[in-house]
Amino acid sequence: MIANSAFLAAMIVLLLSFWVLGQLDFLAPYKHVVFGAHLWTIVGAVVLVFLNLFALIYAVTRWLFLKDTGRKLAHVDRQLGTADTIARDLSDQLANEE
Q: What is the pLDDT of residues 62-82, one digit of tens each?
């Protein structure tokens, strides 16, 4: 989930960067001046946007894909605790650990 969130955030930042650079093509003759004076500010802003997008995407994917996880795991735990279960090997292993 982390890798997918990072990939999606990187793709969005890349697309935003291309769009912004396309809109600012009139600054192309001055790119050495702009990058020379403000390179670290630009890099910091891009990193900040990436981190915020990553956190937002990660939170949304956790909220969407991990709904009712505790309830589902409780159901599996109750099923493994019964004598008549499909996963007998896992039930036996859990019984041996206790």
A: 988 887 666 667 776 777 666
Buried b (16+ CB within 10 A) or exposed e, 31-64: eeeeeeeeeeeeeeeeeeebeebbeebbeeeeee
Say whether both 73 and 63 belong to one domain: no
pLDDT tens, position by position, 28-37: 999 899 999 9
- Domain residue limits at 97: 68-98
Name the more confident of 92 and 11: 11
CB atoms inside a 10 Å sphere around CB 17:
13
Number of structural domains, the chain? 2
